[in-house]
Every structure is written in C-alpha cells, then in structure tokens.
C-alpha cells in the first residue's frame, strides 16, 4: 500500500492508470464514509493505493469518475468505477479472497443490511447536534433522540449475547458503523452512551481490532481537522 498522499485539488493532473494487481481508492483522510472502505481494505489485506481528494476544490477528473463528487470511489486497473461506501465495501468483500466480512447465509446478510438501514437514520445526529450547539440552540431533545436510537443498538447486543453485531467476531456491519463512534469524543457526544453499557463494550473491542488501529485517528487529530472544517477551511492534509 502506498502511503496516503496530500489531497489533490482542482487543476491537479489526473492520476495515471491503476497498477495491475492493485486497486485504487479515492478518499479523504478524515471522511467517515471513506473510512468504511479503508477498514475493509485493511481487514482483508487488499493491495491498494490511496489518492486523497480535496473535497472543497474537487479536480475535474475526479468529477468525471464520480459526478456526485463524493468519496469513497474505487477504480480497478481496467478503469471500472465503483462508488458509495456500502457498495464499495460489498464489492471488495465479494471480489477479493481472504476473510469474508459479509455473512454467506442470505438471511443473515439481509439482517445486516436492514441493520445498516436503521443505522443510516442515526448518522445525521452526529452532524445535527454539533451544528445546533454551535448555533446556541438547546440540544436536549436531539440528544434524547440519539440516546433512544443508540439504546436500540445496545438492546440488539444484549439480545444476541455476542461481542459484535454479527456474532463473536467483527463482520461488515461493525465496520459500517464504527467511523462515527470513533468521532464521538471530538463531537462531544460520548455522554450519549452513558446508558448503553454493551455498546460501550463493543466500542472498546473495536479499538483492539488491527484494521481499526491502522485506519483511525486520535480524538486530538480529529479535533484539529474538525475545527478547520467548521471554520470553512478544512485542513485535509493535517499531520502529513
């Protein structure tokens, strides 16, 4: 894997072809959606290269690859393009050998995808609450809603009596959920886990996972990026 490079902005030359035997990830180092794909690449040990994109000043060649202008995007040596985080992750799991992250049983796979749909309703709170706080609004009701949603995920772990959401080892759904939990401290939302002990234990176990260790940033680093992002001048290359 080539080390992450500084982000490429508008006016930068388009990267050359993807090397044979590799796959390319277009990413942004602090994007939680792109982190999902980085987690899967790491967990499966897939040979890849990463090209980081300046999402404020997107290069034209990047918009040709994904007109939505979002990361993550995968590009194969044959020039095929895959985007949207769950789709890129499913693709990697299906195409590459090694540890399988999606269950082989169709019902279990469907259950993980339904759980991901439920989780997609949680994600907006990680954005809404900090914005409301910055605007000086009372966030009690919003935090109450987030607590309620997180308690449902806690209940799932209690009922299943497993360490992770798909069983006693990490599967795809855990990686799909993780990036926002990694940012909870930075977003000042960790207190919303006060009444979800099983979810808190899940977080502790996730922190011990090699793929999580390889892809994550410390709360301090997240805080520096987040401050720059809120100020409207995101420092995509912080720490490089």
TrEMBL record:
<dbReference type="InterPro" id="IPR045073">
    <property type="entry name" value="Omega/Tau-like"/>
</dbReference>
<protein>
    <recommendedName>
        <fullName>Glutathione S-transferase omega</fullName>
        <ecNumber>1.20.4.2</ecNumber>
        <ecNumber>1.8.5.1</ecNumber>
        <ecNumber>2.5.1.18</ecNumber>
    </recommendedName>
</protein>
<dbReference type="InterPro" id="IPR010987">
    <property type="entry name" value="Glutathione-S-Trfase_C-like"/>
</dbReference>
<dbReference type="GO" id="GO:0045174">
    <property type="term" value="F:glutathione dehydrogenase (ascorbate) activity"/>
</dbReference>
<dbReference type="InterPro" id="IPR004046">
    <property type="entry name" value="GST_C"/>
</dbReference>
<dbReference type="GO" id="GO:0050610">
    <property type="term" value="F:methylarsonate reductase activity"/>
</dbReference>
<comment type="function">
    <text>Exhibits glutathione-dependent thiol transferase activity. Has high dehydroascorbate reductase activity and may contribute to the recycling of ascorbic acid. Participates in the biotransformation of inorganic arsenic and reduces monomethylarsonic acid (MMA).</text>
</comment>
<keyword id="KW-0560">Oxidoreductase</keyword>
<keyword id="KW-0808">Transferase</keyword>
<comment type="similarity">
    <text>Belongs to the GST superfamily. Omega family.</text>
</comment>
<dbReference type="GO" id="GO:0004364">
    <property type="term" value="F:glutathione transferase activity"/>
</dbReference>
<dbReference type="Pfam" id="PF14497">
    <property type="entry name" value="GST_C_3"/>
</dbReference>
<dbReference type="InterPro" id="IPR004045">
    <property type="entry name" value="Glutathione_S-Trfase_N"/>
</dbReference>
<feature type="domain" description="GST C-terminal">
    <location>
        <begin position="105"/>
        <end position="230"/>
    </location>
</feature>
<dbReference type="InterPro" id="IPR050983">
    <property type="entry name" value="GST_Omega/HSP26"/>
</dbReference>
<dbReference type="InterPro" id="IPR040079">
    <property type="entry name" value="Glutathione_S-Trfase"/>
</dbReference>
<feature type="domain" description="GST N-terminal">
    <location>
        <begin position="21"/>
        <end position="100"/>
    </location>
</feature>
<dbReference type="InterPro" id="IPR005442">
    <property type="entry name" value="GST_omega"/>
</dbReference>
<dbReference type="GO" id="GO:0006749">
    <property type="term" value="P:glutathione metabolic process"/>
</dbReference>
<dbReference type="GO" id="GO:0005737">
    <property type="term" value="C:cytoplasm"/>
</dbReference>
<dbReference type="Pfam" id="PF13417">
    <property type="entry name" value="GST_N_3"/>
</dbReference>
<dbReference type="InterPro" id="IPR036282">
    <property type="entry name" value="Glutathione-S-Trfase_C_sf"/>
</dbReference>
<dbReference type="InterPro" id="IPR036249">
    <property type="entry name" value="Thioredoxin-like_sf"/>
</dbReference>
